[in-house]
Write a structure and sequence with these properties.
Blueprint (H helix, E strand, L loop, with lengths): L18 H22 L2 E2 L1 H4 L1 E7 L6 H9 L7 E5 L4 E6 L7 H18 L4 E8 L1 H29 L2 H25 L2 E2 L1 H31 L5 H33 L5 H28 L13 H13 L5
Parallel strand pairs: 1-6
Antiparallel strand pairs: 2-4, 2-5, 3-4
Helix pairs in contact: 1-6, 1-9, 5-6, 5-7, 6-7, 6-9, 7-8, 7-9, 8-9
């Protein structure tokens, strides 16, 4: 039985030759992602902004203006609406009632549900979430802190495991992956909540796994081929690990695409973030992280033995092995 090979044997692609284009594309994507995030902002979920979020499912996609008119007419605060999934489900975000009693929140939910069911026959209530302003502030701080600590921890690990150049290149690549994903959320207006923070941490974990494999092979080849040019070492290392990188990415993407198509709108934002993170992470591992080592001045380890040391060691070994006469 023949094994499936997505990458042919003896592949020899000159990845380093394209590093100038790769660095330019990486910088462009990063600037665009940061720019669109600041320009459009993020659609923060109730986890981060606090309030009451109600999901209502309609038989057919309704007009958001009609839904807003019904909710605003209840006198419970300004409603922020967003259609999700196939458009039949509408997310309605409202401010929390003045009373922190759970009964007051349930009363608001029942009031919205009854009004929508009367105006739109067949509309059904899906779920609701509530988060206070104090809790949402804590969630924002803890979410950002978790991502920052993960990036710093991975960078320190790469520095102590390899060299400082590996740590810097890894941090640059991971930050690029996260910023591009963040820009994607600013463009698509997917809701950014704690689930997406979990997706960011998962993307970081996948990216570092892929990068560590390539970095480990680079360091191994640096010791094996001490006189080889650094460009050749990186190209050799990336080509040697390319089959594993591609196979891993493809198998993960197959599972994520199935989840995107069949998982429903609740998991759509999480799955979309994961798919983009896998694609961008694979690109940055191959073209950015490894090639950046050259720019940072990494060189193959020289042979530290003094001239003649190897010959003296061979003579000493021969004298020790040869029996003396007498």
């Amino acid at each position: 039985m023949r094994l499936l090979k997505l990458v042919p044997d003896n592949t020899n692609i000159d990845f380093v030759r394209l590093r100038g284009w790769a660095f330019g594309l990486t910088l462009l994507l990063t600037v665009l992602a940061v720019g669109v995030t600041f320009a459009r902002g993020l659609n923060l979920g109730v986890d981060f902004v606090g309030g009451l979020m109600i999901e209502e499912k309609f038989p057919t996609p309704p007009s958001t203006d009609q839904v807003r008119s019904v909710v605003d007419g209840l006198g419970i605060g300004e409603a922020n609406l967003q259609a999700v999934g196939d458009g039949r489900t509408v997310s309605i975000r409202l401010p929390l009632p003045n009373s922190t009693d759970e009964g007051a929140t349930n009363a608001v939910v029942r009031k919205v549900e009854a009004a929508l069911a009367q105006q739109f026959p067949g509309a059904t209530f899906s779920r609701y979430d509530t988060v206070s302003g104090k809790v949402s502030d804590e969630l924002i701080k803890h979410g950002v802190l978790a991502v920052v600590l993960a990036i710093l921890g991975i960078g320190l690990f790469a520095i102590f495991r390899f060299e400082w150049q590996f740590g810097v290149s890894t941090i640059v690549a991971i930050v690029h992956d996260l910023l591009v994903t963040l820009g994607f959320f600013a463009v698509t207006r997917f809701e950014l909540d704690l689930t997406i923070i979990a997706a960011f941490l998962t993307i970081i974990g996948y990216s570092i796994n892929d990068k560590i494999v390539i970095d480990d092979r680079i360091r191994e080849n640096m010791r094996r081929y001490r006189k080889m040019d650094m460009r050749e070492i990186i190209n050799l290392s990336v080509n040697e690990t390319l089959p594993r990188t591609v196979m891993t990415s493809v198998t993960i993407l197959l599972a994520l695409i199935a989840l995107l198509l069949l998982g429903g709108h609740v998991l759509r934002a999480f799955t979309a973030a994961m798919i983009l993170g896998i694609v961008v992470g694979t690109y940055s591992s191959i073209y950015v992280s490894s090639s950046l080592l050259i720019t940072l001045g990494l060189r193959a380890e020289p042979n530290r033995e003094k001239p003649g040391t190897a010959d003296k060691r061979k003579v000493a070994d021969a004298e020790r092995i040869t029996p003396r006469e007498g």
